Each structure stands twice: as structure tokens, then as C-alpha cells.
Amino acid sequence: MRKLIAIDLDGTLLSSRYQISKENIQAIRHAQKAGHIVIICSGRAPEDIAALSAKFNLECPIAGSNGTVVIVNGKEISNISMNKTSVISASKLLDQFKSPYRVYTNYGVFIEATWAKRFAEIFEQYKEIKETVSIFEYKMLTEEPIETDTLKIFHHIDDLLSLKNIKVQKFFIPTLIQSMKEELISAFEKIEEIALTSSGPTNIEIMNKNGNKSNGIKTIAKHFGIPLENTIAIGDNFNDLPMMEAAGLSVAMGNGDPKVKELCDIITLTNDEHGVAYAIEKYVLNL
């Protein structure tokens, strides 16, 4: 019986050193060779997932930006974007809070021009926060961003929205201050047509209310004609819950958020113990 296996990246397929172990790669290839479909379903941008997959010689369909963009064999088969009103409202709110943020689009990832300045002000105002990040993280957050092929700088949301056929998949908002995170969540909940999630304790992600990893797994399952009861979702955090709820079998990583683990059918090993390989071998290959 052919199955569909949807796998998250950070905290799941990737180790704490951001590597994909040979054990995980081998398990994925064995599953594919046996006729199963393996997809990477991540909050990362599609082009980032594609580059990472190529680095480790993996060929899988992609559900990027939290499942809002689905790509099979290089062809986009689904794209759920935020409407213009929601994008403007979100941007204005973040400017009001002086919160740094990134915007994920079909043109790549855009970073707000005052990103470094806003982080510098946060670290100045909340000096104790500096002790919670590494020297590398502090430098990365407070240095002026540099444009690349996939990362672009914008000064005002209107500039971004003026791009031809622009599609905004999500906002990524780092939230080092818990009180600010709670205030932002409360404010975002008042904006219609958006959904909130989080891929870690220090961030918020907002998307179209229908844009989540559930769309990713459902779209791929329909494309390949696989019933949802024959799907497996493996993840570690709250942005993985929609695909876990949609899947026939939900698998939480051993290093996953405790609340996420409580809601899943089973718990595998951690991302540093090749938990993805363990789950594939036990619940797919050895059945």
C-alpha cells in the first residue's frame, strides 16, 4: 500500500547542526524506492528547501512557506497567498510595534530595511535578552542585511506590493520578548483573513487563513491519488499541527514541543537520533 510521508525540516529532518544524517537520507530513499511519496513540508521558502534538498541529493515534492506553496517536479501546483488588505494591516501593526520581520513571496524573501536597527533597539531596551542568544545570533540579528538572489530589502510595504503579480505567502516575525509576542498575537487576532502559527518559542508566523501545512499534505495526497488515511506527518512544532491533524498518522519528534507531542499519535526519537529514519523504518518499511 503506497503511503505519503510529509516531513518537516527544522527540528525534524535537520539535526541541531542543520545537517540531514545519512540514516535519514537512506530511509527516505528506501521509502521512495518502495513506491512511497516523500514530501518536505516546511516553513522555509520553497527556493530554500530546494537548495537544501539539492545539497543532500534528495528529490522530493515541496510544500514551502508552511504549505502555502506546493511544487512537484519543479511545477507549482498550489499557491495560497495573503490578500493585499491583510498584508498592509500586518505591516502597519509591525511598524507600530517597531518589530523586525520578513515577508515570504513568489519573488523571494524580503527583509524590512530597519531590521538591524529594530533589533539593536530591542537589545538596548532589554539588556538581559542579549544573554539568551549566541554571539553568532546577535551578530546576525544586528548587522545590516545584505541583498542576495533570494533575500531582498524593502523600505515600505507599498514598494513590495507594487511588484507585478506579487504573491505574499507569509510574514515571519522574531519575538525575543514574550510580552511583545503576546501583545502581537492579540493584535493579529483582530485582523481578518489571516492565521497565526509558530515554528518555535521565539517567533510568530502569519499567513492566509487557509495557508498552512494541511494544504501541503492534502494537495500532494490528491495529486498522487493517495487517501489521507495513508498519509504520515512528522514534525516537532505548532506549525506542523495542521498537517498532523490531516494525516492518517501523526508522529512527533522526541525533541518536539511537549504540547505537540501530547496531540500526536506516536513519538519518535529526536532529530539528533535520526528520528525521521526510525519512524519511516518502523511505520512504513517494516509493516
Can you characterise this structure?
The chain is globular. The model has no long low-confidence stretch (mean pLDDT 95). With 287 residues, the chain is an alpha/beta fold. Strands 5-4-3-2-1-12-13-14 form an 8-stranded mixed sheet, with helices on both faces. Strands 8-7-6-9-11-10 form a 6-stranded mixed sheet. Helix 2 runs parallel beside helix 12 (275-285) and helix 4 (84-97) runs antiparallel to helix 8. It has helices spanning 9-13, 22-33, 46-55, 84-97, 115-125, 135-142, 157-161, 178-188, 213-224, 241-246, 258-263, 275-285; strands at 4-7, 37-41, 62-64, 69-72, 75-79, 102-105, 108-112, 151-154, 168-174, 194-197, 203-208, 231-235, 249-252, 266-267.
Strand proportion, as a percent range, falls in 15-25%
Please outline the major beta sheet.
Answer: 8 strands, mixed
Number of DSSP strand runs: 14
What is the strand arrangement across the widest sheet? 5-4-3-2-1-12-13-14
Would you tell me the overall average pLDDT?
95
Question: What's the number of helices?
Answer: 12
Cα shape: globular
The value of Rg in angstroms is 19 Å
Question: H/E order of the elements?
Answer: EHHEHEEEHEEHHEHEHEEHEHEHEH
Low-confidence stretches: none
What's the short story on this structure?
The chain has 287 residues and is an alpha/beta fold. The chain has twelve helices and 14 strands.
Task: Produce the secondary structure layout.
Elements: E1 4-7, H1 9-13, H2 22-33, E2 37-41, H3 46-55, E3 62-64, E4 69-72, E5 75-79, H4 84-97, E6 102-105, E7 108-112, H5 115-125, H6 135-142, E8 151-154, H7 157-161, E9 168-174, H8 178-188, E10 194-197, E11 203-208, H9 213-224, E12 231-235, H10 241-246, E13 249-252, H11 258-263, E14 266-267, H12 275-285
Parallel strand pairs: 1-2, 1-12, 2-3, 7-8, 12-13, 13-14
Antiparallel strand pairs: 3-4, 4-5, 6-7, 6-9, 9-11, 10-11
